[in-house]
Amino acid sequence: MEIENGILPEVLAWIAIILAIYLTLYYKFLYSIIDPLFNWIISTAFASYFATLVIPDVQDIYHFFGCQIALWFGFVIAYCKNNIPSIKAEPAHNFSDQLLLRYTTYFLLSIYILSNIIIGYSKGFALFSDNPTLSKVEDFQGGFGLFRKINWAAGKFTSSALIYMYLIGGRRKDLIYFIIVAIFSAVDGSKSALFGVITTIGVILYHPSFLYKKDLLTKTKRYIPIFLVGALSISFVVLTKEKGSLNDAYLGFITRLLYSADSLLYFYQPVNIDFFEKYSYVDYISVITNPILGFLRLQPYQEAVGNIMYDNLRTIDTGSEITVGPNAPFYIEGRIYFYYWGAFPFSMLIGYLYAKIRVYYLSIKNASAFYFVYVSCFFQFATTLIGDVSLAVSLLFSLAFFVIPPYILIRLILYRKFTIRLKTNLIISFKI
User: Beta-strand (E) ranges in 3-157?
Assistant: First the structure.
């Protein structure tokens, strides 16, 4: 599907109406326009219009929107039971072990920079290639997948921690380090890389712990428009390389937003409908476990559902052995593994789980600084649950695998002991 200038106003008008409906439903759950949920709402508005164009059966269109309603209902249940956290200044928060977080962050930052230098030297930076979208996948093939996971985990943690430390101490050095992380994120070839950086700023910035620091908040917010312009610039650089002109890049940008639901284009083809009929809820267990077991080499990696859908429709040799298929959002996964009617409670469960994570993060008041930053990263990665559960599991496991061991190591070096607090009166300590 291609968008032309002549029909663009009508397309955008319909999307604006759909967006207004979603914003009405989710408004009370949002804390900012740089909330990851707001990003999802925008992409879902485009996806919903796209669904009405590409889904051939009206019953399946009803199913798509039914899953959207079920997801929202999961939010409502989660927030009703836990009251919406008040996004207002609450300076009574207490985050301990600031020094431990600082050393852990700098250690992970060095690993992150080294990882990107190795990728840049060995493969080149994807943004500067002829096809950044393909290069960002090809660069991590042939044993380089480990570096991708390191970049996921260390990149997200260090960017979150550096913003946290800048808000706490106001050190310009931490802001400079954060910009370095943002630059490396920008050159990985992803059209939305810097939008993720902006989201990270918002997740920390709008936590109730920091809203009372009005002067520092005002100063920090000045940089957000710069990042927004930078994020759009990166998107247009990538699209201009792929499309050939700025006008085509603009139309490609709108098309890309529509294709945030490109899995609909692939799934509702007869060959894929027939292929996935043999799947059941039993197969869904591997969706959750395979990203972990595959990384640990306890079983082979399974092909992602989106890649399977793409390969089933491939009729010509593209000249590349790399398959880059779509993600499988909750409405696709629910339909495949839990069938037509089972997809509705599945969608509600996904919405409930994600909303619970949001509520928990925004309610943290007293914890270690490391725990606060770690949960903020968990919250950011958990947004992927809506887009692809398998990818979310991979991201969350990478976060634990590459961040927690360095934290334990640094803690042992600094304090000669490591303490696990299971309950108020149950503490397990390891000393060296």
Answer: 94-96
Q: Are strands 417-423 and 426-431 parallel, antiparallel or unpaired?
A: antiparallel
Rounded to whole angstroms, what are the CA distances from 170 to 320, 378, 420?
48, 24, 31
231 CB neighbour count, 10 Å cutoff: 21
Closest to 351 in 3D by CA, of 78, 76, 71? 71
pTM: 0.85
CB hemisphere CA count around 276 (13 angstroms): 27
382: left (phi over 0), alpha (psi -120 to 50) or beta: alpha
Q: Are 50 and 259 in contact (CB under 8 A)?
A: yes
Taking the C-alpha atoms of residue 51 and residue 144, their distance in angstroms, rounded to an integer, is: 36
- For residue 342 the two structure tokens come to 């089972």
Residue 320 burial (CB < 10 Å; 0-12/13-18/19+)?
exposed
What 3-state DSSP class applies to 321?
coil
For the chain, what is the radius of gyration of the CA atoms?
A: 22
d(CA 217, CA 238): 32
Rounded to the nearest angstrom, the gap between the alpha carbon of residue 54 and the centroid of all alpha carbons in its chain is 25
Phi and psi at residue 146, to the nearest 5°: -60, -40
Own/partner pairs for 342-345, CB < 8 Å, 24+ apart? 342/281, 343/63, 343/67, 343/70, 344/66, 344/67, 344/70, 345/70
Q: How far apart are CA 39 and CA 144, in angstroms?
A: 30
What does the alpha-carbon distance between residue 268 and residue 121 come to, in Å, rounded to a whole number? 42
Hey, what's the torsion of the CAs at 115, 119, 122, 125, to 10 degrees? -150
Q: In a structure prediction context, what are the per-residue pLDDT tens digits for the chain, which is 432 residues long?
A: 555 556 677 888 888 999 999 999 999 999 888 889 998 998 899 889 888 888 989 999 999 999 999 999 999 999 886 665 555 555 556 788 889 999 999 999 999 999 888 877 776 665 545 555 555 555 555 556 787 888 889 999 999 999 999 888 878 899 899 989 988 887 765 656 677 888 898 899 888 888 776 676 676 667 667 767 766 666 666 666 555 565 566 666 666 666 677 788 889 888 998 899 889 889 899 888 998 998 888 988 888 888 888 888 876 555 555 666 788 899 999 999 999 999 999 999 999 999 999 999 998 888 889 999 999 999 999 999 998 999 999 999 999 999 999 999 998 888 876 665 544 444 555 555
